[in-house]
Amino acid sequence: MVYHERIILLLIAVAVSIPAGTITRQSKHCEALTGFPVMSSPRGFVRVEGDVVHPGMYPLSANMVTTGVIKMAIPLASIKCLAPTEVAAQHLKNGDDVHLKIGVNGKGSVIIDPIPASEKIIMGIPLDINSMGIADFVLVPGIGPKTAERIVEYRQNNGGFMAPEELLNVAGIGEKKYETLKTFFKHLK
């Protein structure tokens, strides 16, 4: 009887150790998509698109420049230079969209635009109230087409620039609605 119990214990031990061994061992087919620097918390996100191996969203660290995020996304080909030249050392902002196109001569062309408002809302990236159009405002929960028109009209009538706090001056936005809306906009310094 003792012999059977030992065999059962041995089989249980083997059954438990097999999955543990396969979980800790990396497969050659399971490579990490990207390597991020160790940081306590990201200061936002930047999207990289175009001629890179790993397009997608990358955490934004302090003083991150264009060449750094392109290296993390791994260019599809060797880049001899970037154009325009000043873009290589440009500090990126939360919500930037970096698009890389590599020519046959190795010249990398970079365009940096903001990520669309709809994606910023999903990612929790603060919106710039001064660069949004009516269609962008309608995407914000709690703002309908009429209120969006009033916001844009208010901004235009007041020099084309407004702080998020000025939403309280727009008809249809009271204290309660403002408390909800202000979380979507970056505050000016």
Can you give a write-up of this model?
By secondary structure, the chain is of the alpha/beta class. Among the domains are: 45-114; 126-184, DNA polymerase, domain 1, CATH 1.10.150.280. The chain contains six helices and five strands, in the order αββαβββαααα. It has helices at residues 2-24, 66-73, 117-123, 134-138, 145-157, 175-181; strands at 45-50, 56-59, 81-83, 96-102, 107-114. It has a five-stranded mixed beta sheet, covered by helices on one side. The longest helix has 23 residues, at 2-24. It is flat. It starts with a helix and ends in an 8-residue tail after the last helix. Residues 20-40 have low confidence and may be disordered.
Characteristic key phrases:
189 residues, alpha/beta, five-stranded mixed sheet, 6 helices, 5 strands, flat
List strands and helices in order, with pairings.
Elements: H1 2-24, E1 45-50, E2 56-59, H2 66-73, E3 81-83, E4 96-102, E5 107-114, H3 117-123, H4 134-138, H5 145-157, H6 175-181
Parallel strand pairs: 1-4, 3-5
Antiparallel strand pairs: 1-2, 4-5
Poorly predicted ranges: 20-40
Query: Care to count the β-strands?
Result: 5
Q: Which range does the strand content fall in?
A: 5-15%
Characterize the largest beta sheet: strand count, sense, and whether it forms a barrel.
Answer: 5 strands, mixed
Class by SSE composition: alpha/beta
Question: H/E element string?
Answer: HEEHEEEHHHH
